[in-house]
Amino acid sequence: MTDTGTIKKLIEDRNANLMKWYAEGAVDKVAEVFSEDCWQMQPNSEPLVGREALQKGWRQMFDWGKCDFSLEAQDVLVSGFIAVERGKYVFRFSAGPDAPDEMSSYEDKGSYVALWKRENDGEWRLVWDAPVSELAIPRAT
């Protein structure tokens, strides 16, 4: 399974599920799309390294409020068991009553690069996820 069109469709389907699961706060389903040794490199923060760290980090976000992602795969390159996705994203966080005082609602948007790998069980999973914000870092007042 190395046809670029087929892999792009598979990635778009995975992204559709991810958008749904982030909105639902389904951290375990989100984590299943990532490899055990994944790296999620979020803008302006330390990377989440490994599926367990990813689950912990997103569980905390889901406890603090509602997350809404929009993902658009713009290009996919495939070589054997590796696929690289380039796309655009919009992320919205709506702070809930349990969010810390310094955590307010916000929106981010930008581009991303994601590395997918077909693992031994035949599933394509995210290994590296690197969003790059297009927005300026807010300045302290």
Q: CA-to-CA gap between the ends?
A: 53 Å
Task: Please state how the strands of the largest beta sheet are arranged side by side.
Answer: 2-1-6-5-4-3
Sequence of secondary-structure elements:
HHEEHEEEE
Radius of gyration: 15 Å
How many domain modules? 1
Shape: globular
Could you estimate the helical fraction of the residues in percent? 25-40%
Mean pLDDT: 94
| Name of the level-1 CATH class | Alpha Beta
What count of helical segments does DSSP give?
3
Low-confidence stretches: none
Q: Which class best fits the helix and strand makeup?
A: alpha+beta
Architecture in CATH?
Answer: Roll
Query: Which range does the strand content fall in?
Result: 35-45%
Largest sheet: 6 strands, mixed
In CATH, the topology is named Nuclear Transport Factor 2, Chain: A
Describe the structure in brief:
With 141 residues, this protein is an alpha+beta fold. It has 3 helices and 6 strands, in the order H-H-E-E-H-E-E-E-E.
Outline the structure in words.
It is a single chain. The protein has a single domain (4-133), classed as Roll (Nuclear Transport Factor 2, Chain: A), CATH 3.10.450.50. The longest helix has 21 residues, at 4-24. With 141 residues, it is an alpha+beta fold. Strands 2-1-6-5-4-3 form a 6-stranded mixed sheet. It is globular. The model has no long low-confidence stretch (mean pLDDT 94). The chain has helices at 4-24, 27-32, 51-64; strands spanning 34-40, 48-49, 65-79, 82-95, 106-118, 124-133. Helix content is 29%, strand content 43%. The chain starts with a helix and ends in an 8-residue tail after the last strand.
